[in-house]
Amino acid sequence: MKLPSLKKLPIIPVLVATFLAIGLLLFVNAYSKRGAFSQLNSSGGREILIESQNIDSDNDGLKNWEEELYKTDYMNPDTDGDGYLDGEEINSGHNPLVKAPGDEQVIFPLPVGDKYNLTQKMFSDIDVVLKSYITQKNQYINDHPEIQSTEDFMAQASPETLQEMLNRAILYNQEDWLGKAEIILAEMPEVFNIEISDNDINVSEDNSLDAIKIYANNLLAYLNSETFFFQEKNLLSIKDALSNNNLSLLDKVINDNNAEIEKLRTTEVPPSWKEVHKKTLKIAVTLRNIFVSLRGYESDPIKAMIAGNEFENVLSDWEKLTKEIADLNKSQNLNLSI
Prior knowledge:
By secondary structure, the protein is mainly alpha-helical. It has helices at 11-31, 44-53, 64-70, 86-91, 118-121, 123-143, 150-156, 159-172, 174-186, 209-223, 232-244, 247-266, 274-295, 301-331; strands spanning 202-203, 268-269. Among the domains are: 6-24 and 194-331; 58-105, no CATH class. The chain is built from 14 helices and two strands, in the order H-H-H-H-H-H-H-H-H-E-H-H-H-E-H-H. The protein has a two-stranded parallel ribbon with strand order 1-2. Helix 6 (123-143) packs across helix 8 (159-172) and helix 13 (274-295) runs antiparallel to helix 14 (301-331). The relative contact order is 0.15.
């Protein structure tokens, strides 16, 4: 039984580059439909696709794909029938599948809905990008006195010039809006800065060698399972899903791992392994939230871009965790094959 070694996977640098490149591209595409950017979006098919991914069939504040992840009914605005819309319940920290009262949300909520939409929360920063773009446009017109109108500008400026203006408008302000996004995220640590306490897991009193071996084998079975995020086939699926916009592949990986997270949370853990278990759970939840954020790029491109950056941090945490598991295995003479 061998833990996935990310250093040996050639897909990792490709995947990181894909996340970052797609993040910027999708940010541009998502906002090229707004105001001064409206002329930049020349792909009619892309417009339709973006809209279809943002459909909220029952107008409950959750998009259809978000309802799929939460297992709510996308044709019923109040799945549990307690008088509160599904989106309202998630935004207020309640479970849309359980009737009030006593419907507190799951301990590690999915970062979907308006509550976790960074782009919406930073809407004013988009105006900064717009102003930067308009400034560049005005400068371009000043440098080309033959341009007399907006129509002349659009006719004479090449698509490459327009795209470059937009990219600069975004990148020149990136440090500012990313900094503000980090401030907002600091108030929502459950998105990427997850902390696992002893109360969040099921620590047993049995620290016998037999109990440790049973637990350790179960943990390694999970980390080596076909559904674990870091298996190469899943990383390839995620890359293909984002590159080809076949998001059903990404939904499957998220749902499979979401089920495993609940199992991890309730598994009995020997005291000597609780720190390893907490780190494993943190990595699992953070990865799930990263991929959920990437899945929601069309409605929240800023969070998708940050999710791409967070992926690199998790890679480092994973390498440290595998070493810690190996050290425990050696110090406790477990003779596990890792």
